[in-house]
Amino acid sequence: MHVTHQDLLNLEDRYRANFVNSLSGFKSANLVGTADDEGNTNLAIVSSVFHLGANPPLIGMISRPHSVARDTLENIQSVGEYTINHVNNGIWKRAHQTSARYPREVSEFDAVGLTPQWQEGVRAPFVAESRLKYSLALISSQTIDLNGVVLLIGEITHLHVEREAIAEGGYIDIESLGSIAVSGLDNYHVTDSLGRLTYAKPHTKPEIFG
Amino acid sequence: MHVTHQDLLNLEDRYRANFVNSLSGFKSANLVGTADDEGNTNLAIVSSVFHLGANPPLIGMISRPHSVARDTLENIQSVGEYTINHVNNGIWKRAHQTSARYPREVSEFDAVGLTPQWQEGVRAPFVAESRLKYSLALISSQTIDLNGVVLLIGEITHLHVEREAIAEGGYIDIESLGSIAVSGLDNYHVTDSLGRLTYAKPHTKPEIFG
Protein backbone atom coordinates (compact mmCIF):
# COMPACT_ATOMS: atom_id res chain seq x y z
CA MET A 1 0.00 0.00 0.00
CA HIS A 2 1.45 3.35 -1.09
CA VAL A 3 0.57 6.48 0.90
CA THR A 4 1.67 9.94 -0.23
CA HIS A 5 2.34 13.09 1.75
CA GLN A 6 -0.98 14.49 0.55
CA ASP A 7 -2.82 11.33 1.65
CA LEU A 8 -1.46 11.85 5.16
CA LEU A 9 -2.57 15.48 5.24
CA ASN A 10 -6.07 14.42 4.12
CA LEU A 11 -6.60 12.04 7.05
CA GLU A 12 -8.96 12.93 9.90
CA ASP A 13 -6.94 14.30 12.86
CA ARG A 14 -7.40 11.43 15.31
CA TYR A 15 -6.81 8.81 12.60
CA ARG A 16 -3.65 10.64 11.49
CA ALA A 17 -2.41 10.83 15.09
CA ASN A 18 -2.79 7.05 15.49
CA PHE A 19 -1.22 6.36 12.12
CA VAL A 20 1.80 8.66 12.32
CA ASN A 21 2.49 7.75 15.97
CA SER A 22 3.01 4.16 14.78
CA LEU A 23 5.68 5.01 12.22
CA SER A 24 8.80 5.63 14.29
CA GLY A 25 8.65 2.09 15.71
CA PHE A 26 8.59 0.96 19.33
CA LYS A 27 8.83 3.72 21.89
CA SER A 28 9.94 3.87 25.51
CA ALA A 29 7.28 4.03 28.24
CA ASN A 30 8.19 6.34 31.09
CA LEU A 31 6.50 8.26 33.88
CA VAL A 32 7.73 11.82 34.37
CA GLY A 33 7.59 12.96 37.98
CA THR A 34 7.56 16.67 38.80
CA ALA A 35 6.56 19.07 41.57
CA ASP A 36 5.62 22.73 41.48
CA ASP A 37 7.38 25.39 43.56
CA GLU A 38 5.22 24.45 46.55
CA GLY A 39 5.98 20.75 46.30
CA ASN A 40 2.64 19.63 44.82
CA THR A 41 3.36 16.54 42.77
CA ASN A 42 2.45 15.67 39.21
CA LEU A 43 2.91 12.49 37.20
CA ALA A 44 2.53 11.94 33.45
CA ILE A 45 3.17 9.02 31.11
CA VAL A 46 5.29 9.88 28.08
CA SER A 47 6.55 7.88 25.10
CA SER A 48 8.91 10.59 23.89
CA VAL A 49 11.99 10.05 26.08
CA PHE A 50 15.11 9.24 24.07
CA HIS A 51 18.85 8.73 24.44
CA LEU A 52 20.85 11.80 23.45
CA GLY A 53 24.37 10.96 24.57
CA ALA A 54 26.38 8.97 27.10
CA ASN A 55 29.19 11.41 27.90
CA PRO A 56 27.90 13.59 29.41
CA PRO A 57 24.80 11.46 30.18
CA LEU A 58 22.01 13.36 28.43
CA ILE A 59 18.35 12.42 27.99
CA GLY A 60 15.99 14.12 25.51
CA MET A 61 12.22 14.42 25.78
CA ILE A 62 9.58 15.97 23.52
CA SER A 63 6.75 17.83 25.28
CA ARG A 64 3.56 19.29 23.79
CA PRO A 65 2.71 22.63 25.47
CA HIS A 66 -1.06 22.33 24.98
CA SER A 67 -1.45 18.65 25.86
CA VAL A 68 -2.75 17.03 29.05
CA ALA A 69 0.87 17.03 30.27
CA ARG A 70 1.22 20.84 30.25
CA ASP A 71 1.52 20.91 34.08
CA THR A 72 4.54 18.66 33.74
CA LEU A 73 6.19 21.04 31.28
CA GLU A 74 5.46 24.06 33.47
CA ASN A 75 6.89 22.34 36.54
CA ILE A 76 10.05 21.29 34.70
CA GLN A 77 10.64 24.80 33.35
CA SER A 78 9.88 26.40 36.71
CA VAL A 79 11.77 24.06 39.07
CA GLY A 80 14.43 22.78 36.67
CA GLU A 81 14.27 19.17 37.88
CA TYR A 82 12.28 16.07 36.95
CA THR A 83 12.42 12.31 37.22
CA ILE A 84 12.09 9.60 34.56
CA ASN A 85 10.72 6.27 35.79
CA HIS A 86 10.44 3.15 33.61
CA VAL A 87 6.91 1.83 33.29
CA ASN A 88 6.89 -1.92 34.03
CA ASN A 89 4.39 -4.72 33.59
CA GLY A 90 3.14 -4.30 37.17
CA ILE A 91 2.03 -0.69 36.75
CA TRP A 92 1.25 -0.22 33.06
CA LYS A 93 -2.49 0.38 33.49
CA ARG A 94 -1.98 2.88 36.33
CA ALA A 95 0.71 4.55 34.24
CA HIS A 96 -1.71 4.90 31.30
CA GLN A 97 -4.36 6.35 33.61
CA THR A 98 -2.07 9.33 34.41
CA SER A 99 -2.96 10.61 30.93
CA ALA A 100 -6.54 11.42 32.06
CA ARG A 101 -7.30 15.14 32.30
CA TYR A 102 -7.34 15.54 36.10
CA PRO A 103 -7.85 18.99 37.64
CA ARG A 104 -4.60 20.83 38.33
CA GLU A 105 -4.90 20.42 42.11
CA VAL A 106 -5.17 16.61 41.87
CA SER A 107 -1.91 14.67 42.03
CA GLU A 108 -1.88 11.79 39.56
CA PHE A 109 0.06 9.78 42.17
CA ASP A 110 -3.04 9.77 44.39
CA ALA A 111 -5.52 9.47 41.55
CA VAL A 112 -4.02 6.33 40.01
CA GLY A 113 -2.45 4.73 43.09
CA LEU A 114 1.30 5.15 42.70
CA THR A 115 3.71 6.17 45.47
CA PRO A 116 5.92 9.28 45.45
CA GLN A 117 9.46 8.60 46.63
CA TRP A 118 11.82 11.44 47.53
CA GLN A 119 15.57 11.64 47.24
CA GLU A 120 17.39 14.21 49.33
CA GLY A 121 18.45 17.13 47.16
CA VAL A 122 16.01 16.40 44.32
CA ARG A 123 12.90 18.59 44.01
CA ALA A 124 10.89 16.08 42.00
CA PRO A 125 9.30 12.79 43.09
CA PHE A 126 10.36 9.37 41.87
CA VAL A 127 7.83 6.55 41.44
CA ALA A 128 8.47 3.98 44.18
CA GLU A 129 7.00 1.14 42.06
CA SER A 130 9.41 1.76 39.16
CA ARG A 131 12.50 -0.45 39.09
CA LEU A 132 14.73 1.85 37.03
CA LYS A 133 14.51 5.62 37.54
CA TYR A 134 16.66 8.72 37.56
CA SER A 135 16.46 12.43 38.20
CA LEU A 136 17.45 15.04 35.66
CA ALA A 137 18.59 18.63 35.88
CA LEU A 138 17.15 20.61 32.99
CA ILE A 139 19.92 22.11 30.90
CA SER A 140 18.11 23.12 27.72
CA SER A 141 14.52 23.85 26.71
CA GLN A 142 13.90 24.74 23.09
CA THR A 143 10.74 25.17 21.01
CA ILE A 144 10.79 23.44 17.62
CA ASP A 145 9.33 26.14 15.35
CA LEU A 146 8.01 23.63 12.80
CA ASN A 147 5.21 22.45 15.07
CA GLY A 148 5.57 24.17 18.44
CA VAL A 149 6.68 21.14 20.47
CA VAL A 150 9.39 21.60 23.08
CA LEU A 151 12.65 19.66 23.18
CA LEU A 152 13.83 19.27 26.77
CA ILE A 153 17.36 18.10 27.49
CA GLY A 154 18.35 16.96 30.96
CA GLU A 155 21.50 15.68 32.59
CA ILE A 156 21.25 12.71 34.95
CA THR A 157 21.84 13.62 38.60
CA HIS A 158 20.79 10.49 40.56
CA LEU A 159 19.86 7.01 39.41
CA HIS A 160 18.21 4.04 41.14
CA VAL A 161 18.29 0.57 39.61
CA GLU A 162 18.11 -3.00 40.89
CA ARG A 163 21.68 -4.27 40.95
CA GLU A 164 20.75 -7.71 39.55
CA ALA A 165 19.73 -6.08 36.26
CA ILE A 166 23.24 -4.83 35.45
CA ALA A 167 24.80 -7.27 33.01
CA GLU A 168 28.07 -7.73 31.16
CA GLY A 169 29.85 -4.55 30.13
CA GLY A 170 27.41 -2.15 31.79
CA TYR A 171 24.30 -3.16 29.83
CA ILE A 172 21.15 -2.96 31.93
CA ASP A 173 18.76 -5.84 31.26
CA ILE A 174 15.59 -3.74 31.17
CA GLU A 175 13.57 -6.76 29.99
CA SER A 176 14.34 -8.45 33.34
CA LEU A 177 12.91 -5.34 35.04
CA GLY A 178 9.62 -5.77 33.15
CA SER A 179 10.08 -2.51 31.26
CA ILE A 180 7.37 -1.89 28.69
CA ALA A 181 7.46 -0.72 25.07
CA VAL A 182 4.71 1.38 23.46
CA SER A 183 3.47 1.49 19.90
CA GLY A 184 1.13 4.09 18.48
CA LEU A 185 -0.79 6.00 21.13
CA ASP A 186 -2.15 3.21 23.29
CA ASN A 187 -0.62 -0.24 22.71
CA TYR A 188 1.68 -1.64 25.41
CA HIS A 189 4.10 -4.52 24.89
CA VAL A 190 6.37 -6.76 26.93
CA THR A 191 9.45 -8.01 25.13
CA ASP A 192 11.30 -11.23 24.40
CA SER A 193 14.99 -10.89 23.64
CA LEU A 194 16.33 -12.42 20.43
CA GLY A 195 19.82 -11.92 21.82
CA ARG A 196 22.67 -9.47 22.13
CA LEU A 197 24.85 -9.31 19.04
CA THR A 198 28.63 -8.91 19.02
CA TYR A 199 30.17 -5.65 17.80
CA ALA A 200 29.92 -5.71 14.00
CA LYS A 201 33.10 -5.89 11.89
CA PRO A 202 33.37 -6.02 8.10
CA HIS A 203 34.73 -9.55 7.69
CA THR A 204 32.84 -11.43 10.42
CA LYS A 205 29.19 -12.22 11.02
CA PRO A 206 27.47 -11.02 14.19
CA GLU A 207 27.00 -13.68 16.86
CA ILE A 208 24.71 -13.88 19.86
CA PHE A 209 26.49 -13.60 23.20
CA GLY A 210 25.69 -13.09 26.88
CA MET B 1 21.52 0.62 44.01
CA HIS B 2 22.11 4.38 44.00
CA VAL B 3 24.31 5.89 41.28
CA THR B 4 25.29 9.57 41.29
CA HIS B 5 26.19 11.91 38.46
CA GLN B 6 29.85 11.64 39.49
CA ASP B 7 29.68 7.82 39.47
CA LEU B 8 28.50 7.97 35.86
CA LEU B 9 31.33 10.30 34.86
CA ASN B 10 33.85 7.94 36.51
CA LEU B 11 32.81 4.92 34.42
CA GLU B 12 35.06 3.60 31.65
CA ASP B 13 33.82 4.92 28.26
CA ARG B 14 32.48 1.69 26.75
CA TYR B 15 30.85 0.64 30.02
CA ARG B 16 29.20 4.07 30.32
CA ALA B 17 27.96 3.87 26.73
CA ASN B 18 26.28 0.52 27.42
CA PHE B 19 24.87 1.71 30.72
CA VAL B 20 23.48 5.08 29.65
CA ASN B 21 22.12 3.70 26.36
CA SER B 22 19.90 1.41 28.45
CA LEU B 23 18.30 4.20 30.46
CA SER B 24 15.80 5.74 28.06
CA GLY B 25 13.96 2.41 27.70
CA PHE B 26 13.14 0.46 24.55
CA LYS B 27 14.16 2.11 21.30
CA SER B 28 13.01 1.77 17.72
CA ALA B 29 15.13 -0.24 15.28
CA ASN B 30 15.34 1.29 11.83
CA LEU B 31 17.55 1.18 8.77
CA VAL B 32 18.32 4.55 7.20
CA GLY B 33 18.74 4.39 3.44
CA THR B 34 20.64 7.13 1.63
CA ALA B 35 22.51 7.78 -1.60
CA ASP B 36 25.23 10.27 -2.47
CA ASP B 37 24.96 12.75 -5.35
CA GLU B 38 26.06 10.04 -7.78
CA GLY B 39 23.50 7.50 -6.57
CA ASN B 40 25.87 5.29 -4.58
CA THR B 41 23.81 3.73 -1.79
CA ASN B 42 24.42 3.56 1.93
CA LEU B 43 22.53 1.80 4.70
CA ALA B 44 22.87 2.19 8.48
CA ILE B 45 20.99 0.83 11.48
CA VAL B 46 19.89 3.48 13.96
CA SER B 47 18.03 3.35 17.27
CA SER B 48 17.51 7.11 17.48
CA VAL B 49 14.43 7.66 15.28
CA PHE B 50 11.53 9.21 17.18
CA HIS B 51 8.05 10.63 16.66
CA LEU B 52 8.03 14.42 16.58
CA GLY B 53 4.51 15.27 15.46
CA ALA B 54 1.57 14.01 13.44
CA ASN B 55 0.39 17.22 11.76
CA PRO B 56 2.51 17.88 9.82
CA PRO B 57 3.95 14.34 9.92
CA LEU B 58 7.47 14.89 11.30
CA ILE B 59 10.12 12.36 12.28
CA GLY B 60 13.21 13.19 14.36
CA MET B 61 16.55 11.40 14.34
CA ILE B 62 19.78 11.91 16.26
CA SER B 63 23.00 11.44 14.31
CA ARG B 64 26.58 11.35 15.57
CA PRO B 65 28.92 13.14 13.10
CA HIS B 66 32.00 11.09 13.95
CA SER B 67 30.36 7.67 14.18
CA VAL B 68 30.36 4.79 11.70
CA ALA B 69 27.20 6.33 10.24
CA ARG B 70 28.87 9.58 9.16
CA ASP B 71 28.36 8.72 5.46
CA THR B 72 24.63 8.59 6.17
CA LEU B 73 24.67 12.05 7.72
CA GLU B 74 26.70 13.49 4.84
CA ASN B 75 24.33 11.99 2.26
CA ILE B 76 21.25 13.31 4.05
CA GLN B 77 22.70 16.80 4.32
CA SER B 78 23.91 16.78 0.72
CA VAL B 79 20.89 15.21 -1.04
CA GLY B 80 18.15 16.23 1.39
CA GLU B 81 16.31 12.91 1.27
CA TYR B 82 16.47 9.63 3.19
CA THR B 83 14.35 6.59 3.96
CA ILE B 84 13.43 4.99 7.28
CA ASN B 85 12.78 1.24 7.16
CA HIS B 86 11.55 -0.81 10.13
CA VAL B 87 13.88 -3.64 11.10
CA ASN B 88 11.88 -6.86 11.43
CA ASN B 89 12.60 -10.31 12.85
CA GLY B 90 13.57 -11.61 9.38
CA ILE B 91 16.43 -9.17 8.87
CA TRP B 92 17.64 -8.16 12.33
CA LYS B 93 21.11 -9.75 12.07
CA ARG B 94 21.73 -8.27 8.62
CA ALA B 95 20.51 -4.93 9.93
CA HIS B 96 22.98 -5.08 12.84
CA GLN B 97 25.80 -5.94 10.44
CA THR B 98 25.35 -2.57 8.66
CA SER B 99 27.05 -1.02 11.71
CA ALA B 100 30.40 -2.54 10.70
CA ARG B 101 32.97 -0.03 9.46
CA TYR B 102 32.92 -0.78 5.72
CA PRO B 103 35.03 1.32 3.34
CA ARG B 104 33.16 4.30 1.91
CA GLU B 105 32.90 2.75 -1.57
CA VAL B 106 31.17 -0.40 -0.28
CA SER B 107 27.37 -0.32 -0.14
CA GLU B 108 26.05 -1.94 3.02
CA PHE B 109 23.15 -3.27 0.93
CA ASP B 110 25.60 -5.52 -0.94
CA ALA B 111 27.77 -6.24 2.07
CA VAL B 112 24.97 -7.57 4.30
CA GLY B 113 22.56 -8.92 1.67
CA LEU B 114 19.63 -6.51 1.63
CA THR B 115 17.91 -5.21 -1.50
CA PRO B 116 17.65 -1.54 -2.52
CA GLN B 117 14.19 -0.57 -3.76
CA TRP B 118 13.61 2.69 -5.61
CA GLN B 119 10.53 4.89 -5.69
CA GLU B 120 10.18 7.33 -8.56
CA GLY B 121 10.95 10.84 -7.39
CA VAL B 122 12.88 9.79 -4.28
CA ARG B 123 16.68 10.01 -4.33
CA ALA B 124 17.24 7.50 -1.54
CA PRO B 125 16.80 3.71 -1.53
CA PHE B 126 14.20 1.83 0.50
CA VAL B 127 14.91 -1.62 1.90
CA ALA B 128 12.82 -4.13 -0.06
CA GLU B 129 12.76 -6.59 2.88
CA SER B 130 11.25 -4.03 5.29
CA ARG B 131 7.47 -4.18 5.73
CA LEU B 132 6.95 -0.57 6.88
CA LYS B 133 9.06 2.20 5.34
CA TYR B 134 8.86 5.81 4.28
CA SER B 135 10.91 8.51 2.66
CA LEU B 136 11.63 11.86 4.29
CA ALA B 137 12.52 15.28 2.97
CA LEU B 138 15.01 16.93 5.31
CA ILE B 139 13.62 20.18 6.66
CA SER B 140 15.92 20.93 9.57
CA SER B 141 19.43 19.94 10.62
CA GLN B 142 20.70 21.33 13.88
CA THR B 143 23.78 20.62 16.00
CA ILE B 144 23.11 20.23 19.72
CA ASP B 145 25.93 22.27 21.25
CA LEU B 146 25.95 20.29 24.49
CA ASN B 147 27.56 17.24 22.90
CA GLY B 148 27.86 17.85 19.15
CA VAL B 149 25.17 15.42 17.98
CA VAL B 150 22.90 16.47 15.13
CA LEU B 151 19.11 16.58 15.31
CA LEU B 152 17.62 15.87 11.88
CA ILE B 153 13.95 16.57 11.24
CA GLY B 154 12.24 15.18 8.17
CA GLU B 155 8.76 15.34 6.70
CA ILE B 156 7.24 12.15 5.29
CA THR B 157 6.92 12.17 1.50
CA HIS B 158 6.02 8.55 0.58
CA LEU B 159 5.09 5.58 2.74
CA HIS B 160 4.80 1.85 2.05
CA VAL B 161 3.05 -0.48 4.47
CA GLU B 162 1.25 -3.82 4.26
CA ARG B 163 -2.46 -3.01 4.26
CA GLU B 164 -3.35 -5.86 6.64
CA ALA B 165 -1.38 -4.17 9.42
CA ILE B 166 -3.63 -1.10 9.56
CA ALA B 167 -6.05 -1.58 12.46
CA GLU B 168 -8.91 0.28 14.09
CA GLY B 169 -8.67 4.06 14.04
CA GLY B 170 -5.50 4.27 11.98
CA TYR B 171 -3.23 2.39 14.39
CA ILE B 172 -0.59 0.31 12.58
CA ASP B 173 0.00 -3.06 14.23
CA ILE B 174 3.79 -2.99 13.98
CA GLU B 175 4.03 -6.15 16.11
CA SER B 176 2.23 -8.05 13.32
CA LEU B 177 4.92 -6.77 10.96
CA GLY B 178 7.64 -8.31 13.14
CA SER B 179 9.10 -4.90 13.98
CA ILE B 180 11.93 -5.10 16.50
CA ALA B 181 12.76 -3.10 19.62
CA VAL B 182 16.32 -2.38 20.80
CA SER B 183 17.72 -1.93 24.28
CA GLY B 184 21.17 -0.67 25.08
CA LEU B 185 23.59 -0.87 22.17
CA ASP B 186 23.12 -4.44 21.01
CA ASN B 187 20.06 -6.26 22.40
CA TYR B 188 17.15 -6.95 20.02
CA HIS B 189 13.64 -7.86 21.12
CA VAL B 190 10.39 -9.05 19.62
CA THR B 191 7.26 -7.96 21.46
CA ASP B 192 4.07 -9.39 22.90
CA SER B 193 1.18 -6.97 23.22
CA LEU B 194 -0.50 -6.62 26.62
CA GLY B 195 -3.33 -4.78 24.87
CA ARG B 196 -4.47 -1.40 23.65
CA LEU B 197 -6.01 0.74 26.38
CA THR B 198 -9.01 3.04 26.00
CA TYR B 199 -8.51 6.80 26.13
CA ALA B 200 -8.05 7.69 29.81
CA LYS B 201 -10.67 9.79 31.61
CA PRO B 202 -10.64 10.90 35.27
CA HIS B 203 -13.61 8.87 36.51
CA THR B 204 -13.23 5.62 34.59
CA LYS B 205 -10.58 2.91 34.52
CA PRO B 206 -8.74 2.07 31.30
CA GLU B 207 -9.94 -1.05 29.52
CA ILE B 208 -8.35 -3.25 26.90
CA PHE B 209 -9.96 -3.03 23.46
CA GLY B 210 -9.30 -4.06 19.87
List keywords for this structure.
homodimer, 210 residues, alpha+beta, Pnp Oxidase, Chain A, 5 helices, 17% helix, globular
Structural class label of chain A: alpha+beta
> What is the C-alpha radius of gyration of chain A, as a whole number of Å?
18 Å
* Overall 3D form of chain A: globular
Order of helices and strands of chain A: EHHEEEEEHEHHEEEEEEE
Level of helix content of chain A? Answer: 10-25%
Say which CATH homologous superfamily of chain A is assigned. Electron Transport, Fmn-binding Protein, Chain A
Distance between the amino and carboxyl termini of chain A:
39 Å
Could you tell me the number of beta strands of chain A? 14
- Subunit arrangement of the protein: homodimer
What would CATH call the architecture of chain A?
Roll
Largest interface: A-B, 107 and 107 residues
Characterize the main sheet of chain A. 7 strands, antiparallel
What count of domains describes the coordinates of chain A? Answer: 1
Regions of chain A with pLDDT < 50 over 5+ consecutive residues?
none
Report the average pLDDT across residues of chain A: 96
Strand content of chain A: 35-45%
Count of alpha and pi helical runs of chain A: 5
According to CATH, the fold-level topology of chain A is: Pnp Oxidase, Chain A
Order of strands in the sheet with most strands of chain A = 4-3-7-10-11-6-5
Q: Please report the first level of CATH classification, the CATH class of chain A.
A: Mainly Beta
GO molecular function, one term (chains A, B): oxidoreductase activity, acting on the CH-NH group of donors, NAD or NADP as acceptor
InterPro entries (chains A, B): Flavin_Rdtase-like_dom, Split_barrel_FMN-bd
Cofactor (chains A, B): FMN
Protein name (chains A, B): Flavin reductase family protein
